[in-house]
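User: Show me a protein chain along with its predicted structure.
Assistant: Here is one chain, sequence first, then structure tokens.
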Amino acid sequence: MENFKTFEELECWKEARKLRNHIKDNLIPKLPDFEKYNLASQISRSSRSVGNNIAEGFGRFNYQENIQFCRMARGSLTETLDHSIITFDENYITEKELEEIRIIYNRTLLLINGFIKYLKSKQ
């Protein structure tokens, strides 16, 4: 982590931010009002949690703890994809819109896994 001064420099965090903003700007507005406190809340929280966990792990200044928080970020990332699939299944978004989310999901997943691999090599 000596190469990074802040979590904002991490590519995995940058991609998690893209996902969070994509969900906020492109998915949540398509949900009906009755989903405001259910699905909208859940997908908002899980998409925010990805970057939050990356940032929290970075702030621990301990490789093993950072890895653990990256694993939690990966879980939140997968939860966000699952919520996105639900929005598709409920006909709130199109297959094309779901594919856009999958693309960001896959990039984020690769970057988180790469960061975990980097952290393991530094232990």
